[in-house]
Design brief:
- There is one protein chain.
- With 216 residues, the chain is an alpha/beta fold.
- The chain has a single domain, classed as Alpha/Beta hydrolase fold, catalytic domain (Rossmann fold), CATH 3.40.50.
- It is 34% helix and 21% strand.
- The strands form two sheets. It has a seven-stranded mixed β-sheet with strand order 1-3-2-6-7-8-9, sandwiched between helices. Strands 4-5 form a two-stranded antiparallel ribbon.
- The protein is globular and about 45 Å long.
- The N and C termini lie far apart (38 Å).
Length: 216
């Protein structure tokens, strides 16, 4: 099982959940800032550590070796995690999956294959593992899923052009993707990008701008 930590919503009894997947060499500790930064008092956060140790942090797959084996293993672990939380009373339909870099890849990979509909899926500064194969292996609800994908035009690690081309391929296959480009490197572009994420999350839950506290 994957190591997790639940950051509870300020509003009691909320079952709205964001599952947060970090990037290469990072950990759940690198995303403690996200709940206060988004300022959504009705949203719970499940911070997740990837399964493999990597230079003081963790990795979802070995990008320098057989990435496919690692991706498939992490996909199975995330399926198990989501299934377990469904059993605990946290419906996927009220869950947003969020990932950065390697976590973005896993968000796309899981979102296209998991058999239950998410509230939404957010991928930041990542890419799609074997997009042609993913299109063949789409879940029965994949064409109903709603994705927000962002990328930096100055990303030195994951080339912008290649990432955008993959997104065009997925969109041409009927995947519903809201795509945003930022002038940034391999990072989250501060409040400008957080505002896009916040608006997407609010819209997926049908919340109005006044629901996000001090940010509006």
């Amino acid at each position: 099982m994957l190591e997790t930590d639940l950051v509870p919503a300020q509003e009691k009894d909320s079952r709205r959940l964001m599952v947060v997947l970090h990037g290469l060499g990072d950990s759940m500790e690198g995303y403690r800032w996200l709940p206060p930064a988004l300022g959504l008092p009705w949203l719970n956060y499940l911070l997740v550590n990837a399964p493999d140790p990597y230079f003081g942090g963790y990795s979802w797959y070995d990008f320098s070796g057989d990435a496919g084996t690692g991706v498939e293993r992490s996909r199975a672990l995330l399926f198990e995690l989501l299934d377990e939380w469904r059993k605990r009373g946290w419906p996927t339909e009220q869950t947003v999956l969020f990932g950065f870099s390697q976590g973005c890849l896993m968000t796309l990979d899981v979102g296209l294959r998991y058999p239950h509909l998410f509230a939404g899926l957010i991928g930041i500064s990542g890419y799609t593992h074997e997009p042609d194969r993913a299109i063949v292996e789409l879940s029965p609800v994949a064409l109903q899923q709603r994705f927000l994908i962002t990328h930096g035009t100055e990303d030195p690690l994951i080339p912008f052009g290649a990432a955008r081309e993959q997104i065009h391929l997925l969109k041409a296959s009927g995947i519903k993707i809201e795509w945003h480009e930022f002038v940034k490197a391999h990072t989250i572009a501060g409040e400008e990008e957080l505002a896009v994420i916040r608006d997407f999350v609010r819209a997926r839950y049908g919340r109005s701008p006044v629901d996000c506290g001090s940010h509006r």
